[in-house]
Design brief:
globular, five-stranded mixed sheet
């Protein structure tokens, strides 16, 4: 065999071993010595090493589809006191109302018993529990009564009448005047009340009281149209508010409103300052600036504040009488 043939055979054998081994000739790997090309694809393939300096930096802006994290809302619990503490607080409020609320009365025993009994009957129809000592505003729309009473409701003891003032509920005989509905209405944070602007109508009357008077919004309610004898109903926005302190407050104690509950200005201020039915509003004020802005800055909320208003009717009839020709009278 000639030397040339032996050299050619050795070369072919070397190539076969290299191919079967899947390797790369050491000469090829060691030949990449240029530092400028370390990050190139050829250098990565040859050495199997990625230079960190060649990797682009991470984006500094967060992805646009990232959902922002909303901090949790911590709602404070409703105030809870013992029955003994509730009785003591109710007595304190009663003494203050005697001194500061115009027309305040503690009522005779039979009247107090009627307020409590009728309120319990109405509340039992709803299934709403009384889980803590709290005040309930009870309004008797009986045309011969027309008074409110704040009742201390207790979960496991008899309820106690504290006292109240004259009111005016819906009247009959005037077109577009509704009869205040009977039932249980809750002052929830689903609705935001407001304050009177004190503006006068064409007769010089401030319909919902002096400027700054509180208006409690009890929502849309179904009420009987007081000008129709067929017991037709419609929707009203049931509100609790003051009336004109100069011209109309003397009419409290008689049906006179368009369906809302009118109260004395002094009772309006007392309820507002001590938050008698603002328990849920006080909670909302801790996380919602709208409620914080509505409530008085100097308020002193009572620990037995509630959120319920119950309208009852102690009259012999289940509804006020309706004038059969009221719908034929012209608008006032």
């Amino acid at each position: 065999m000639s030397p040339a043939f032996r050299l050619s055979s050795s070369f072919r054998l070397l190539m076969m071993v290299t191919a079967l081994g899947g390797g790369v000739l050491p000469l090829t790997a060691c030949a990449q010595t240029d530092t400028a090309s370390k990050g190139s694809p050829q250098a990565v393939a040859a050495t199997g090493v990625i230079d960190d300096a060649s990797v682009p930096p991470a984006a500094i802006n967060p992805p646009t589809d990232t959902v922002p994290e909303i901090p949790p809302v911590n709602i404070p619990p409703l105030p809870v006191v013992t029955n003994a503490e509730a009785h003591k607080e109710a007595a304190r409020l009663e003494k203050m109302m005697v001194k500061t609320v115009k027309g305040f009365s503690t009522y005779k025993p039979e009247r107090r018993e009627a307020f409590v009994s009728l309120a319990k009957d109405e509340l039992s129809k709803t299934g709403l529990p009384i889980s803590r000592p709290q005040l309930i505003m009870v309004v008797d729309r009986n045309e011969k009564v027309q008074h409110l009473d704040f009742v201390l409701a207790l979960p496991d003891e008899p309820w106690v009448s504290i006292g109240g003032t004259p009111v005016s509920t819906g009247t009959t005989g005037r077109k577009y005047y509704y009869i205040t509905p009977v039932g249980v209405f809750q002052n929830t944070a689903d609705r935001l009340g407001y304050r009177a602007e004190g503006t006068k109508n064409k007769y010089g009357i401030r319909g919902i009281g002096a400027k700054g008077s509180r208006v409690w919004d009890m929502g849309w309610q179904t009420a009987m149209k007081g000008w129709l004898p067929k017991h037709e109903t419609g929707q009203i926005r049931l509100e609790i508010h003051a009336t004109d302190p100069q011209f109309l407050e003397w009419r409290l104690g008689h049906p006179a409103s368009e369906g809302c509950i009118r109260i004395p200005a002094t009772m309006n201020h007392f309820m507002d300052h001590y938050g008698l039915i603002d328990a849920l509003y006080e909670q909302a004020a801790s996380y919602d600036p709208r409620f914080s802005a509505l409530l008085p800055k100097d308020r002193e909320q009572t620990p037995i504040a509630g959120d319920l208003v119950i309208v009852v009717d102690s009259g012999p009839l289940t509804e006020p009488k309706i004038d059969p020709i009221a719908d034929k009278r012209p608008l006032p």
